[in-house]
Every structure is written in C-alpha cells, then in structure tokens.
Write a structure and sequence with these properties.
single chain, mainly alpha, 2 helices, about 0% strand
C-alpha cells in the first residue's frame, strides 16, 4: 500500500494544473489562427502559380509554332530551289 502511495506522490508534481491547461488551450487557439492565415496565403500562391504556368504555356506554344513554320519554310526552299 505504501508503495502505491509513494508512486502517486512522485507522479503528482508531473500532472498539469488548470492553469497549465488554459495556457495550452490559448496557445492552441493562436496556432489555429496562424494555420488559417497560412491556408489563405497558400490559396493566393496557388492562383499566382496557375497564372504563371498558363502564361508560360502560351509562350511555349507560340515559340513552337514559330520554329515549326521556319522549319517548314526552310525545307520548302531547299526542295524547290536546290537541285
């Protein structure tokens, strides 16, 4: 019986008090606010990335069209005038 009491007495200083719990809850609420702010910033960044990728895709299509046209013109010139 005394061994159980000694074990409980050594355990009591490690238990959290109501003040500790309220401090922890306050910290968690601040953390939730920061997470929601980061979530909003993430959506903004996602929108910017989508716009940038779309613009690069259009530039790539334009560049490839130009290269293909120039290649076709070169092959046509060689086929027509070089014998």
């Amino acid at each position: 019986m005394e061994a159980c009491i000694v074990r409980l007495e050594t355990l009591i200083p490690n238990l959290a008090t109501k003040q500790d719990m309220s401090h922890l809850e306050c910290g968690l609420s601040k953390l939730e606010v920061k997470i929601s702010q980061l979530d909003g910033k993430l959506y903004q960044l996602e929108g910017k990335m989508h716009q940038a990728m779309s613009a690069l895709g259009l530039r790539l299509v334009g560049w490839m069209t130009t290269v293909m046209f120039a290649s076709f013109a070169g092959v046509f010139f060689i086929a027509r005038y070089v014998h």
